[in-house]
Design goal:
By secondary structure, the chain is an all-alpha fold. The protein is 78% helix and 0% strand. It has helices spanning 2-8, 10-31, 34-50, 54-63, 65-71, 75-87, 96-111, 115-131, 138-154, 158-169, 174-190, 194-211, 214-228, 230-246, 252-259. It is globular, with a radius of gyration of 19 Å. The termini are far apart.
Length: 273
């Protein structure tokens, strides 16, 4: 009957709608539109919990929630929620939920200023990520390489970070160009090459602007203001702090430390290699 056909369409329609909302939230996270994420996230989360949709719920908790808790400057809560989320998921095989959990927890460690723990986590998880063939997906391949490279810069392994930047640039997308520029800026700053770092930050900010990745753009500009110094630099830092505050970000400095480690204001040793 037509009624039965419509009833049979309920499940795929619901799944498609929920998946679309999950992907929308992920996209807004990429863009840095955290006010939109913060407004919509609890509504979507309640809906999937009410329907017993563990797949989507675990995806939300493993990929989205950490950014909201980090914006609130509560990395402990972010980490705790990630632990609880993955504990409820299957430990047989390796799924997107496992990947998202690894990636998100590494960002929490970077936010906390603990790149050693972030890199250890990523290196231990890398064989499983490779076996899953997820690295065939460009966005995962690029963000995974970027996460590893951020750890490398924060730990002074600048050669590794420079090689990662070259690989990411090889993806030949404007948003990956932005990630590559950001890494090159971090490497240059950590070597004490201020002018070179500023040039790379200019390129990163422009690439992120063009692709709508406004949080990354603001991070690049805040780092540029820090390394430039003076009144102009201070004004740029203040402007970026104001923009991040508009997105609910309480600690712009820690957000920069997570997304763009580098010697912007003397917090890392200046290295020559």
């Amino acid at each position: 009957s037509s009624e039965a056909l419509r009833a049979g369409q309920d499940v795929p329609t619901t799944w498609e709608s929920t998946t679309a909302r999950l992907l929308s939230l992920i996209t807004w996270c990429f863009q840095g539109n955290l006010t939109e994420v913060a407004a919509r996230y609890p509504v979507v989360l309640k809906d999937v919990r009410d329907r017993g949709d563990l797949y989507t719920e675990t995806g939300l908790l493993n990929r989205i929630s950490h950014m909201l808790w980090l914006a609130a400057d509560d990395p402990a809560r972010a980490s705790e929620e990630l632990k609880l989320a993955i504990a409820r998921w299957s430990h047989s095989g390796f799924h997107f939920q496992h990947y998202w959990n690894l990636f998100s927890q590494s960002e929490v460690f970077l936010y906390q200023g603990d790149p050693a723990s972030a890199r250890k986590l990523l290196r231990e998880g890398e064989p499983a990520v490779e076996r899953s063939m997820m690295l065939r997906v460009q966005v995962i391949r690029a963000e995974w390489a970027h996460a590893m490279a951020r750890c490398a810069i924060a730990m002074g392994d600048l050669g590794e970070a420079a090689r990662a930047a070259k690989r990411i640039e090889g993806e030949e997308m404007q948003w990956t160009d932005g990630l590559a520029w950001l890494l090159r800026a971090g490497v240059a700053a950590s070597r004490g090459h201020v002018d070179e770092a500023v040039t790379h930050l200019d390129g990163a900010a422009q690439a992120f602007d063009a692709t709508g990745m406004l949080l990354h753009a603001s991070v690049a500009r805040r780092a540029r203001g820090l390394i430039r110094g003076g009144e102009e630099g201070a004004a740029e830092v203040a402007a970026m702090d104001a923009w991040m505050a508009s997105q609910g970000i309480r600690s712009p400095a820690r957000m920069v430390r997570m997304l763009a480690p580098g010697n912007w204001h003397g917090d890392l040793p200046r290295l020559s290699s």
